[in-house]
């Protein structure tokens, strides 16, 4: 999955067609889903692909992998890794839903995300993404200050530019802010 994600970022940065890679990734994913006997080997494939696809504005394709992840991984054994996986999956799904103009669903899902449950080694990275999306729904100096502090602390100055969640007009956004 990281191989496909890397290629996807390369194609995006160079403004090249991604269609062949997306087909290849789906083909590979179909193959490993049927041949890998242990789900642990697949555990992050959908998550890594969904994140890369969201960051490259392939929102519908990202939702395909998210839906698959939700169908495969059941919360049988609650634990820190499962908690982290679900929090990040919810965040990425909220980003993808926002990207396709489903703001209400995105906001509802984002409200379920608790950044404190992000995996320790990636907490700041995902919190930055969380705050960027949160700013789409509510303007606040506190959120902006926290975001700027995290970006400054981590050095992820370009991350704000890499997260391509643009304000999108959609029927779903009508009266979204109570106007």
Textual characterization of the structure:
With 179 residues, the protein is mainly alpha-helical. The chain has 9 helices and no strands. It has helices at residues 2-13, 19-35, 45-55, 59-72, 80-99, 103-112, 123-137, 141-154, 159-162. The protein is globular, with a radius of gyration of 16 Å. Residues 164-179 have low confidence and may be disordered.
Topology:
Blueprint: H1 2-13, H2 19-35, H3 45-55, H4 59-72, H5 80-99, H6 103-112, H7 123-137, H8 141-154, H9 159-162
Helix pairs in contact: 1-3, 3-4, 3-5, 4-5, 5-6, 5-7, 7-8
* Gap from first CA to last CA: 42 Å
For the sheet with most strands, the description reads: none
List the helices and strands in order: HHHHHHHHH
**Helix content estimate:** 55-70%
Number of DSSP helices? 9
- The shape, in one word, is globular
Uncertain residue ranges: 164-179
How many β strands by DSSP? Answer: 0
What is the compact description of this entry?
By secondary structure, the protein is mainly alpha-helical. It has helices spanning 2-13, 19-35, 45-55, 59-72, 80-99, 103-112, 123-137, 141-154, 159-162.
């Amino acid at each position: 999955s990281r191989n496909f994600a890397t290629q996807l970022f390369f194609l995006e940065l160079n403004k090249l067609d991604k269609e062949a890679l997306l087909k290849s990734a789906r083909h590979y994913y179909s193959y490993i889903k049927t041949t890998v006997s242990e789900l642990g080997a697949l555990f992050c494939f959908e998550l890594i692909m969904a994140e890369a696809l969201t960051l490259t504005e392939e929102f519908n394709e990202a939702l395909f992998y998210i839906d698959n992840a939700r169908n495969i991984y059941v919360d049988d054994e609650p634990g820190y890794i499962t908690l982290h996986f679900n929090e990040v999956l919810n965040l990425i799904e909220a980003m993808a839903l926002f990207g396709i103009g489903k703001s209400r669903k995105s906001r509802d899902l984002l409200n379920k995300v608790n950044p404190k449950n992000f995996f320790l080694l990636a907490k700041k990275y995902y919190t930055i993404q969380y705050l960027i999306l949160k700013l789409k729904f509510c303007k606040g100096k506190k959120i902006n200050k926290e975001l700027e502090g995290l970006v400054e602390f981590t050095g992820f100055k370009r991350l704000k530019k890499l997260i391509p969640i643009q304000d999108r007009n959609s029927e779903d956004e009508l009266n979204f802010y109570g106007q």
